[in-house]
Write a structure and sequence with these properties.
The model has no long low-confidence stretch (mean pLDDT about 95). Helix content is about 45%, strand content about 15%. The chain has about 375 residues and is of the alpha+beta class. The strands form three sheets. A six-stranded antiparallel β-sheet has the order 1-2-3-4-6-5, covered by helices on one side. The chain has a three-stranded antiparallel β-sheet with strand order 7-9-10, with helices on one face. Strands 8-11 form a two-stranded antiparallel ribbon. A hairpin with a 4-residue loop joins β5 and β6. Bound molecules: 2-acetamido-2-deoxy-1-O-phosphono-alpha-D-glucopyranose and magnesium ion. The site of magnesium ion has 4 residues, from loops.
């Protein structure tokens, strides 16, 4: 979601200065800030080449409070983007431009360090002819999101796991996230715990279920795979005209994980018509038809490689990840809003309450959700 175009002001000069560090073609025309992530800073810039062609690029600053080793993030991203491009281009030569590509920077790396501009910057192609949604509007979009991330997992499942390092350790380790919350409650540096007693109690009551997936993973009952780990609906680029999925973006958290974390985060963001900032909690609930389409899209792409145990926990993962992200918002609220970008007072508390409401709604549908998944799986074996 661009805010405002800049072509000749100080912001434009900064964007041009950063863009000129990369192998982009031509002269800077204009740029705009894209405001749909909580972590990195993102600009879309347009350059005109000598022959009059206008090309758009994405410039992004990697947040080094969140990603402690940004160079490692870039090594992961480079391997993943290359692997995907190689696979897609082998199938469809005309798909160039529809996968993420990094542009080299001055000096030969795929990033540049600009200490006076906040640190590390990188440059991607802008995937033209596509758009994203912050909330799902119809079941077709939910299907496409599921299909896109299922296909993504399929595309990267043959990468060498040794090649991809953890960019944020314990990213989806829910018991660890809960322990972090309890540490923040105990420290309570800003005296905010008093505002969220009810939420803290709620989590204590739910905490017996937080370790289900990590325990199964530790026992070897759930396979560790390379996964995306941030499968929000607005990380799927859909064709502007047909609304079919073109590619997924935001690869910074691609690392070893459970496919259930990816599916869970899709349930969190593609089955509710309200976004995570919605304050009117009466609008925050899961819609079963959206879940069904999401599951159908995901399984159409992924049913071939999932194990029966993975399939058994798909619905539960929606509840778990929604609760986990809510817990992370609450922890950041207590810590003083250092991690997630906020734009109003109590923003992280609002988000946490929203997520807990959604988690309760998902929880009340778990049996129906899992039944639907079982039915879908049976339909594949019959085909
Ligand atoms: C962050 O920046 P964004 O919106 O892509 C976060 C995700 C959360 C999400 C909640 C690296 O992602 O884990 O699910 O906010 N990313 C990181 O909206 O922490
Ligand atoms: Mg992200």
């Amino acid at each position: 979601m661009p805010l405002q175009q800049h072509s000749n002001d100080d912001i434009a000069k900064r964007m041009a200065r950063i863009g000129d560090e990369f192998a982009v073609n031509g002269n800077f025309l204009y740029g705009e800030e894209l405001c749909n992530g909580h972590i990195n800073t993102t600009y879309r810039v347009c350059y005109r080449s000598e022959d009059g062609r206008e090309d758009r690029y994405i410039l992004q600053r990697i947040n080094d409070y969140v990603f402690k080793d940004p160079a490692q993030v870039m090594r992961n991203v480079e391997k993943v983007t290359r692997h995907i491009s190689w696979k897609i281009l082998r199938r469809r030569r005309d798909a160039a431009g529809q996968t993420l590509q990094l542009y080299p920077a001055r000096g030969g790396r795929n990033y540049i360090m600009l200490p006076d501009e906040g640190g590390m910057w990188r440059c991607y192609n802008n995937i033209e002819g596509t758009h994203t949604y912050d909330v799902v509007e119809n079941t077709r979009q939910a299907y496409q999101a599921g299909y896109a991330f299922g296909s993504f997992q399929d595309l990267i499942c043959d990468m060498n796991p040794e090649d991809i390092k953890e960019s944020i350790p314990d990213f989806h380790n829910t018991p660890k996230r809960y322990a972090d919350l309890l540490t923040s409650v105990a420290a309570d540096p800003l005296g905010r715990a008093v505002n969220c007693r009810e939420e803290i109690e709620k989590l204590a009551a739910w905490s017996g279920r937080f370790g289900k997936l990590t325990a199964m993973q530790a026992k070897g009952d759930l396979p560790t795979r390379i996964t995306h780990n941030d499968t929000k609906i607005n990380n799927v680029m859909l064709d502007e005209e047909t609304d079919t999925a073109v590619c997924v973006i935001d690869l910074d958290t691609v690392m070893p994980g459970l496919v259930l974390y990816d599916f869970g985060d899709m349930v969190r963001t593609a089955t509710c018509r309200a976004n995570e900032d919605e304050e009117d909690l009466s609008k925050v609930y899961m819609q079963l038809p959206f879940f069904e389409s999401l599951a159908e899209g995901y399984l159409d792409a992924a049913h071939g490689f999932l194990t029966p145990t993975e399939v058994d926990w798909l619905a539960f993962s929606g509840w778990l990840i929604t609760t986990e992200i809510g817990m992370r918002f609450l922890t950041d609220y207590l810590d003083g809003d250092k991690y997630f970008r906020t734009s109003k007072p109590e923003h992280n508390l609002i988000r946490a309450r929203n997520q807990f409401k959604l988690a309760e709604s998902i929880d009340s549908h778990l049996e129906q959700m899992q039944q639907y998944i079982r039915r879908l799986m049976r339909s594949y074996t019959k085909r």
